[in-house]
């Protein structure tokens, strides 16, 4: 499908963006910006912002929407990675650090211990920094969820991604109910942690289905929601079914807030960690 006029976004380049790329290469760090081919990467890098992706760049799942390379045998976690993330975050001057990862079903704890180590390293190396994690579902294992939660992130983000009816195609190894239960557990056990989730539009969902997802998220006390347009990152990924008009994103933002989700960031190019610092601070 040809992109409509409102989705024509100019690439952002420049010395600042190149410097960020260089820092990441020197630090042997991955970002979801690059691995998932995020359309906002140039803009974010130019502003010296990046979302770190720990636990390697090979995922044990193969979701239909994602460009991250699948591999059932990724490398062992790197014990030095949390320290390198901390040094890079300090070099970038980040006051709000977002950490995500590939899904690591090959690890007993799903990589939760590595998330916790990274949070602790950031707290020790960057006093006053706020930390946001965007985690996989850890197969619903409470011990793993609690390990990350108890490390004290300011924001716990886990995306439901789409409506339940599309899970078989979009997230075949995941479970909508499992994702809801993860977010519910975090909010129930640690009410002070901001819970956050995201959903993509344009995969064939109906507005009624999207509104039903909002009802489910509001029912578990979700604090923040991101809503964005699915853009096919590679020919190996699912095709776009619909390009949703900008005014629909505005309508959905109002609907989500009316349902009780206090912070909603909705728009064609919105992604989970896009302007995450502003979302956390309540400026969006």
What would you note in describing this structure?
- The relative contact order is 0.13.
- This protein has helices at residues 15-26, 32-35, 41-46, 81-92, 112-125, 142-149, 167-170, 176-189, 207-219, 246-258, 276-281; strands spanning 30-31, 52-54, 96-101, 130-134, 155-157, 194-201, 224-229, 263-266.
- With 284 residues, it is an alpha/beta fold.
- It is globular and about 45 Å long.
- It has an eight-stranded mixed β-sheet.
- It has eleven helices and eight strands.
- Helix 4 packs across helix 5.
- The mean pLDDT is 95.
Supply database-style keywords:
11 helices, single chain, 37% helix, 284 residues, alpha/beta, 8-stranded mixed sheet
Secondary-structure element series: HEHHEHEHEHEHHEHEHEH
Structure classification: alpha/beta
Backbone CA Rg: 18 Å
Please count the helical segments. Answer: 11
Report the average pLDDT across residues: 95
Principal-axis shape equals globular
Biggest pleated-sheet summary: 8 strands, mixed
Q: Distance between the terminal alpha carbons, to the nearest Å? A: 31 Å
Strand order of the largest sheet: 1-2-3-4-5-6-7-8
Summarize the structure.
The chain has 284 residues and is of the alpha/beta class.
Task: Give a topology summary.
Layout: H1 15-26, E1 30-31, H2 32-35, H3 41-46, E2 52-54, H4 81-92, E3 96-101, H5 112-125, E4 130-134, H6 142-149, E5 155-157, H7 167-170, H8 176-189, E6 194-201, H9 207-219, E7 224-229, H10 246-258, E8 263-266, H11 276-281
Helix pairs in contact: 4-5, 5-6
